[in-house]
Design brief:
Six copies of one chain form a homohexamer.
Chain A: E1 4-7, E2 11-15, E3 29-33, H1 35-45, E4 50-56, H2 60-71, E5 79-81, E6 88-92, E7 101-105, H3 121-125, E8 130-134, H4 144-157, E9 161-165, H5 175-182, E10 191-193, H6 196-201, H7 212-227, E11 231-238, E12 244-253, E13 256-259, E14 263-266, H8 273-286, H9 291-305, H10 317-324
Parallel strand pairs in A: 1-4, 1-8, 2-6, 4-5, 8-9, 9-10, 10-11
Antiparallel strand pairs in A: 2-3, 6-7, 11-12, 12-13, 12-14
């Protein structure tokens, strides 16, 4: 019985340490990551009850992943065990003008092999209020879009709010393939998180001119209207370095548009920051915060994640609220 | 026979590596730290003869700490061995908008259990010129303030200059408890190091308005007059990030007020920077530098410490003088 | 059969990790470095065929170095084995206002002991187009300058283009000793890389006033004229911190002077950045790029190296070209 | 709702790596351990449902410990949060003729401060079948024995089987203090695990002569009769090195005495091996194994733990059964 | 132009450190391994000229692997670049009674996707004397056996001696599948390395009774006769621990059977020891050693590998010869 | 004012971790070592007052070494600073049949450059009772034997007991060179530690037949008589592995010959074990132990060192006495 159910693939993440590139790494750090699992961990981290539905192989890597999620407080009862392998991705964190690079090795994973009928969705969703998925899952394999549709139908049948993070991955498919697969699934979505470029290239929003914020507002309004999303959330970045970034978020609720303050962030690990934003947003909306409070909380949650190694955030509600309220990192807390 | 005697508690410091928080740390780095021990190491590091008076348990942690201090050149003859345990503190260094956090586990330490009569102060101070203590020690246990008074009386009897760093720790006591304990001990103090806020909340200086420097000057002048301090030193910081800070220092000698240049610092480890400042100040005053030279040297000593991991600085007099003179880090020294 | 032959000493580099200084390092990282080997690796890294001529002891350190170079694609057929020892240098990377410091322990190395007659230069240079050396080698021992002359005569006899990087090392000799040894060898040089200060103090260029770029231009034009260099390349830095720097490069070809854009760089490891610049320059000139393209490529190659640990760059031609074209590190590459 | 409830203190364990002693350790590994938590983890590891009742401070160390236990599948609903601190123990693993040494720093821990009335035992034991405790807990503080009695009364009221591991710790109390505190609590115990020496010095068994096994049998029979234990389990070791040991176990059920085979073990980490034995025994008895099968399984579970770093075993039921059946470590499993 | 060509798959090996199992590993060590690559490295290590023919993806993992092989002196000109991914295997080294375990994730690798026609075998084999392959490759994918046949036909056409190491992997196929695929390829084999059990279950030798050596001799004689192998080599192990083993080797040449002495080995890393044996055998046979000398050298080469971490041996010819001659590890070599 | 003065060279020791050989080491551990410094540390470790006379360069490596010695309690007042460099040695610890190997890079060290007249011996020896040196020092450079003689003359003038450990190093000189240099210095020696082979090849003892102990006795008696040594101590080893060894010691005092029990040792680090033996012997003799007690203590001190990483032992007097009395490593000490 969890308030929020997230569904997707979770992978073994192997990261190079100490600014090395993959050919030079003396060893590899290991953790787990995946857009939807990251959201579930963020929610559990904030004290929400969150479940993660996925499929992992019956081997020690699968065991470790289940343990890691359970340790972080995520309900793992809906993780199926079976299939061929766990997807892997290698991260070489960037610095300065050298960008972070990610090498995926995820084909044929247990979750990619998952087919409709494998999950007992009615049972998965029993007692839940919210379902979160992303645009990565339909790209995993030929039957993955059908699996998503099956879950979405069940979620709607169970009366859940559905959030969706587009997360276009060019290594998995083209924008036109993504458009073809994702657009028909938008009817199930209540809360859409995407980038202004993705809105245009994949969801069909007209391309807009102007500043970042102007372009975000324009496409958000179009998406909300065209797809009847109750909310559209977007984030923007600025700067040209891998170790620092500008960061700001926007939320459109009905016709009401709010923006967070703009952060100037130093980066420890950028992977998963968007997922922390999304998790923070769901958390805040679920507890009934105002739109402005929600986007402030979500932006702060994402901002905080930039200082945490690995895919998974580590912060308390109090820490995120203090950050949203303007308290930053200068003073030693003792 | 050491020129300077520092007294206080030294703890085992366990730090999380690689930007992790305590629940995620793969291992813990270990070193030792404590405000007064840090000053002693800074002095020894600069070539002064410095002794440290404290109490450590008779176990391998106590052995390691004594070795570490002795290795750095600190006279350890006045470290008593006995009592229950060594205090521990856990440091999770911050980055960007996430602040450094410190978790103390110091109750019941051997030094907290130290009582008046345990130290042979006349012998500890034999041949010394200077005694340094801090406002942490009286907070350690009910009898610790009496221990401080005993030491201060002996130091004055032996004709030593006494310096004091207020170092208010809110985990140990309230500001009013601190005020009650510390104010009666100020009569023994010649050189007082504190923050403008501490001057007001604990030592009773009137709260002042204006810029940082104006507030510092105002409270320093009040302190010097009210408590007959021969010198009052203060530092200020600016900025909102855990990995970078502005840094500037001020020294009031008689009615003469001097300030250092303002540094923009990148931070490797901020713990102990104030102690390096204080150690640098004592060193410079002891060798007879002018007030301006002393505050420049002390500010540079503290600035340099921001680049050194652990509580204990590592710098030569030549390096600090070069920094004070404006030579910074751009050129490779080969 | 390699297009470019580099000659010089390569040393074991032992570096302190995690911002520690040498007395505090918990362990030492090890790699290899030396100005000319770094250029060879940079060239091989970019796909050029590069050979390295040197002398290493017949022990496991020598074996490891040969393996490392061969692994990176450098032709090691001209590395002689014999002599007393491998030179070592200890690097304590700086941060903020604390400069990177280098401690050399290179006296009596196998390469310093190399004497004229040891290398079969005609065979080393067979099929090559370019010879690169530096101003470090003549300083290694009393007979090293003669060894350089022997190589230079052979290189010219074989019709190679000769590049030279001055690299003055004050630990090895004085500027006047360097001037005396190096000036007579300039007649063999086609492409000279040096700093504006070195041009004056060692190669005799008149000291110039004005901005960095003006001084660089002035001395480059004098050098090109006085020594008949076909090209002179220089780089400049700005800033006062060890972890960030401004970076810009200039190339004088015949009378045509071009400059790169100015980079604001975050630094992972600064050692070897000049060598990456030089390797990038040789690569670009060899493939026939225009002067502007060559200085842009070389500046970007050097800029990229600032983000790579160790002496040896790790970048593809495509990455450097993208950087030169303005694409930096902000976006995650997945 | 867990089948087995374990109660006791869990501590932060800090271990020296790479055969170092505490004064020489370059860093400290961290995990958690405590006799009863180790049993709970062992049970969860084997697929049993196990809960752990304890008290941990509300800080990041407490959070980490809860996460670690929950990750391993232990029900953490009965872990109270509050109190002063988490106990710490430092382990320096031995090797050869140098014994493993443990330095405790556990006074004043949150669990030591736990008092009767804090735990809602009826709710803790609801649905459970078994309660496990140890002879360490009554030694923690003056009120800890009363806390144990309160739990034991509730466990018996709820009809649970009660197992007890004596675990005498000479740093906490004398044998006569232990005898005085523990003997009155034996009336609640069904399954007693102890050593032959402890049986004599603390539980009052007559001292016996003869071989290890003879002495074990003699005291076990006395204990079973005197205290009406339904079962008594003992293990024995042989050898004189820290990195290898002989290992054998015995179980007395009613009047039926069975022994396991004797293992010759190589040791990675010896801490917690007895707890893995006890957990294996509870697991095996709970699933209705014969006495011989139970002692074989328990002995193998303890044997396997010797190869696993940290306090907590990591093995599947299949692995332990294979070991009990004689399959050891020679063949690579691929 | 290399004397020996080895063909097969090379994988990324990720190993758990410090005796941890995969769910507990704090990080993963990385190297490369694969039966045939291991043989090639062993040969290059001994000074032979060895080439490796394989297929690796065009990504940074592939780059690293090529660099590693080239660094070790292996000719990498016949490594094709392309395909989907690099196979990965996870190794958890065992200790004591816990066996080393290997988790393969190799499906769909670039080498598994290699098809007949991709390699220009005549060019690969030009100038070579020997071809080595293993029974793993035909199991990689449906077309892999045909790829092997293509290579074998070309090798024979070029007049090479062919060696074969059976290396049955139960995760890839059944013994009957292996028998069906491998038996028809035996006609190309001159030197066969296998185990006595494999000889029976896969190559059809009658099962024999008696001691290990008797069973080895019996099946070797049958194999040599039935398949007209010029030589059959086998090794045997004894003991039941993961960290120590008995080790002995046998070679049948024509009708002449020789055995090595039996070693009692302490194990650092057992993976690749058989490949070091095979590489040592090829090396010794190629230089014309007697059968006794060859089996002694090969057995010592394999024995030595047990002390080396990773798949790849590190030993000089002199070291192996000294070991074969009885000089072991007791004295410090300084 | 130290009871014992040791003189010799101390070097930076760089060790490969995790069973790697030098070409494969991922990083290098660093400590310091040298036969005489090791003895001094062993003595200080046991509570004796020990001083070390040597010469170290004025750089950060020298600073670190001084700190390390001082931290361990060694009087460093007689360490001169100056000269060219610190000697370095690389250790690759062996395992099983692979021997530990040492690569020296010590030519031209500051101590090798030390010449007669540099040390103020009368002041160095003031208040001391014992002088210890070794047969390594005379081999360091052409003037090192004269330096030794100068020290020995002064030591005898000051009435000190002189101990000598032969420590023949074949990388530094031949046995005949050693004989020529050392024999004339034996007149100053009271207590001689050497091996039976060294006694013959360097000190001229007749070669003897029989068991190890018989050969040791025979040469010890010859040495004692020929050179008028008051005591001769020897150790013997057995076994053929790098990670385990037999160990036994013998002491001849006047005509009284005693032997220790024979240990079967597991080895963490063998370097420095002989020095720990010698340090233990000096300690025991200085406190007036009987010959049997002294050889038992010394043998146990050396035995214990086999379990300690680095050159320097770490043990208390109580630990060594317990070991000598038969208490070994089986029981966990808590």
């Amino acid at each position: 019985m969890s308030d929020v159910v997230c569904m997707g693939e979770v992978m073994l993440r192997l990261s190079t340490p100490l600014h090395t590139r993959l050919p030079d790494a003396p060893f590899l750090d290991l953790c787990f990551g995946g857009a939807e699992a990251n959201v579930a961990v963020q929610l559990a981290n904030l004290g929400s009850s969150a479940a993660f539905a996925s499929r992992l192989p019956e081997n020690e890597l699968g065991d470790r992943c289940v343990e890691a999620l359970r340790g972080r407080g995520v309900n793992v009862a809906s993780i199926l065990r079976g299939g061929s392998r766990m997807g892997v991705y290698f991260v070489s964190p960037g610095y300065g003008l050298r960008a972070t690079s990610v090498l995926y090795d995820r084909a044929g994973s247990s979750m990619a092999e998952a087919t409709p009928g494998m999950f007992a969705w009615d049972s998965v969703f029993a007692g839940a209020k919210w379902f979160h998925w992303s645009g990565i899952t339909p790209a995993l394999s030929p039957h993955s879009a059908a699996l998503c549709r099956e879950a979405l139908v069940a979620a709607k049948r169970a009366g859940l709010t559905v959030s969706f993070d587009l997360n276009y991955r060019s290594k998995l498919w083209t924008t036109s393939e993504a458009a073809e697969a994702l657009q028909p699934l938008m009817e199930f979505v209540d809360v859409c998180v995407c980038g202004a470029d993705e809105a245009t290239s994949i969801l069909g929003a007209p391309s807009a001119a102007g500043s970042d914020l102007e372009r975000m507002e324009s496409s958000a309004r179009w998406l909300a209207k065209y797809y009847s999303f109750s909310r559209v959330a977007m984030t923007r970045r600025s700067g040209e370095n891998a170790h620092e970034t500008g960061w700001q978020a926007m939320l459109l609720s009905a016709s009401d548009l709010v923006i967070s303050r703009e952060y100037a962030l130093a980066i420890v690990d950028r992977i998963g920051t968007g997922d922390s934003f999304t998790g923070g947003l769901i958390f805040s909306l679920l507890r009934g915060d105002s739109a402005q409070a929600a986007i402030d909380f979500a932006a702060a949650a994402g901002a905080w994640k930039h200082t945490i190694p690995g895919d998974w955030n580590r912060a308390t509600v109090a820490e995120i609220e203090a950050l949203a309220a303007g308290r930053a990192g200068a003073a030693v807390r003792r």
